[in-house]
Amino acid sequence: MKFDAIIIGGGPGGAVAGLLLAKADWSVAIVEKSRFPRQKVCGEFLSATNLELLSQLGVAGKFSELAGPKVTSVSLFAGETILNSPMPRLESNGETCGRALGRDQLDTILLQHAADSGATIFQPWSATELVRNERGFVCRIIERETQRGGELQARVVIAAHGSWENGNLPTQLQKNSAKPGDLFGFKARFCGSRLPGGAMPLLVFPGGYGGMVYTDGGRTSLSCCVRRDRLEKLRRKNSAASAGETVLAHIKNSCRGAREALADAKLDGAILSVGPIRPGIRQPYQNGIFLVGNAAGEAHPIVAEGISMAMQSSWLLGETLVARGTKNLSPRELDEVGREYTALWKKNFAPRIRAAACFAHLAMRPATANALLPLLKLFPQILTIGARWSGKANQLVPPATPMKMAPT
Fold first, then answer.
1. Is the pTM for the entire model greater than 0.90?
2. Fewest C-beta in 10 Å: which of 17, 205, 266, 274?
3. Does some domain include residue 227?
4. Proportion of the chain above pLDDT 90, given as a percent
């Protein structure tokens, strides 16, 4: 089957890329290995920088209907310390309030809207191989439930498969040997928490960091990262509990704010885990393939910008591709687009990733974190500055900018 573009991964990055290209009259195939709806280890927060993009995508109304309450402040829960500071305002219109929506709902909405806009969805199918030829790429796919195979062909391939899973595709990372500093992610949802309204606290505890936020249905989402060596030490002390239960108990014991917020809360569903995760800057264009979201580069989850970066990097790529005015790009033109997209990606996302790495390393070192607390208590507005550095005030998508459409 021939398409103008093949997108591997149907999460926020892949769905947004497919939606934008389909709206520009490209024939698009999106290959997604999981059935939706499904949960993901994710903080679920979307900052106010995404509101204009959601509007342009045509899903702002649905997002507003389902998402949790507006988040107006950034907080810190570290040991016995609880601090609070306003969320930074957007440079364009002064908006501050992001909101959270579960990945089971957000991903389903975006992928369905991509399908409604004309994208062809292969789900649940896995992309197993990419072969480059004179006509572009052949992508071999397998239906996960029947093992039926197929082939897709396109000149443009976009990798939106994330970075946490190993695979045979040239854009997927290879498995690394275990290291003490490897980070494992956990996520739990609760009903009946006492988290203050409008707050999104950063949780700092020995060997890791996390965050909490009200999401859809009145639930509270807690997501965190823990170093491998700390997790192993905790599990040796309590081998009867699961890894998720052990980490949750560690957070409650270490953070008064989390302990008080979850005092009467009930766990809603299972505690999810994933890892090791792969923060860092990669190459947004590799050997003729475009990468978006975590596949291109991943910020430490401490800044809660993962979904934002996935969607916004796809918008950048979609704008860059559509602006060419043709879907039949030659290899030379693809490389030109790749260089342009790479420069834009690094300008907009590399500073966030570097800032996130700095914050994460400070948070995971108890001695350093404790030394900084007196300064933060004197100047809690440092939290607002940190949120600004993480990208929560930099609106990438211009307000009221219509989609560029390919010439007919």
1. yes
2. 266
3. no
4. 80
